Amino acid sequence: MVASRYLPNRSIPTGTVRVGVIGTGFGDSVHIPALKAIPYVEVGSVCSKRADRAHLVASRHNIRKSTNDYRELIRDDDIDAVVIASPPNLHHSMSFAAIEAGKHVLCEKPMSRTVAEARDLVRLAEQARVVAMVNHEFRFEPARAYARELIESGWLGEPHSANVTVYRSTLNDPNGAPFDWLMDETKGGGMLGAAGSHYLDALRWWFGEVRSVAGTSATMVKQRRLADSNVMGNVSADDNFAVVLRFMNGAIGTVSYSATSPFEFGEQIILSGSEGMLMMTGDRKLYGTRRGQPLGEIALPEHLTAEVSPADHPLYGPTSLLLRVWIGAIRTGEVTAPSFLDGLKVQELMDGAQRSGQLGRWVEVEKGRFGHI
Question: d(Cα 238, Cα 185) in Å, to the nearest integer?
Fold first, then answer.
């Protein structure tokens, strides 16, 4: 991982990093347990929009403070760093307030709703000199991490093509998963942001910067049952999307995603180059071949598989590793990816794909001062 150009204003080389968690969905099931397992970390406060929910989560995890006002958590002098695990429409305001208060930030993806919001947060984090990272936790999934190592070692040769195909049944049934922010475009919902951000980050991480993008999205299940009700609500966010990328190195990438499949096929990722190929599937295994050789499973090195992931949540392990990097950066000042700069780059790709769908043409990715991380 490459260090960012900015350093924190106050690393914590000794003592405990005191973290506040905003959001009690993923925050409750993954962030808090993972943080509590890291040495020199104390989860000091938790926030939910419902005070009773915040109190319940705090009690379950033995956290001293709870609140339904994120500003109160951010203003707390006993908090050094903040995890933001709220719906995407709140990421900008919450991250802005936390950075302005001098807190280090780990924000869930997508880090914002627009490029303008993302750029605003990057500038603010640089000025405040805090450690600001985005939870693209799949970079720490062993098969994907080893694919990165193999690509850097020349396994693929010259990169030619990257293909991601995903068929999930999560949103197939209108009476299944109840209506929430994920189905509401005004709250930053939609699968392009929720899932596409991960795949776009991975492709950029593996193949480098992107020159141009084309894309389209659709809402195939247009109504969904409201929570605790038989009433149907109108869905405004996408549940299917497709994105095509032209990389600076000449390679082509595609991401095709459906959350409304009648069958849970899962994901298939294929990376191909002049000398080799790598493939990852939903079983979290890595397969590969070099020119003239048969395709076979590639054993993952122990240094990437040593982290034990509790069976109750498959994202615990990768998120735990990312959180350890974040805490390490706060303590030492060595800021690493995935940073807010990476979040901005992903936002550029998502915004470009959306504009491409509206304009019916390729969209050039914005060329600015922000380089590859």
Answer: 8
